[in-house]
Design goal:
By secondary structure, the chain is mostly helical. It is built from three helices and no strands.
Length: 64
């Protein structure tokens, strides 16, 4: 995590990850009721990863 903040400016991180993070958080709060904090955290992180990947592909397609 430290290297992420050291490598990229906070503004760049927020531009890339704010929307996928927010959507993943909403999905996790609404749908992930697995009874275990650890499982829900892993589900949230996996959802954030997938949404971030999809957003990156979409942004690259728009830029071309």
């Amino acid at each position: 995590m430290y290297s992420l903040f050291k490598t990229f400016a906070l503004k760049d991180i927020l531009e890339r990850e704010f929307l996928p993070f927010t959507i993943a958080l909403i999905i996790a709060q609404l749908y992930f009721k697995w009874g275990s904090f650890a499982l829900e955290l892993v589900g949230f992180i996996f959802t954030w990863l997938i949404l971030g990947y999809g957003a990156q592909i979409l942004l690259n397609a728009i830029r071309k």
